[in-house]
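Please check this today:
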Amino acid sequence: MIEDTKIEASALLRTHVDKSPYTLNEIALMSGFHGPEMLEGILRGDLRIPLDKAMPLAQALGCDGRNLFVLVLKSWFGAEFVKTIEKVFANGTASAVERGWIVFLRDFYGDHVPELTPTLRRRLRLLVSSPG
């Protein structure tokens, strides 16, 4: 299971690296690596992403930092540990339904989730209330 998550994290990075205007060496340097060797190992699925490099990598590649960090945590500690951390720190703030909507909206809008303005709120209400 941990091995699968490591591969999933490297696949996510590969997608963003392929779309990036930067070279692998530039991405590595922007993320705090000394060179591209470690990043190449991560992209091959041979190495895990170091915990302290997850957020700099996400920022350098323009990907969802939360999603990448969760994958990195799972690759190091396993899914059960990450679930425990989520329970401790989420503190029951959002229900499963709310989290589902949040995930949907993040997927729909990508990394550019707009501010919830009154106009957008009205549109969402109309969308939800309209018959199927």
Notes: Residues 94-132 form one domain.
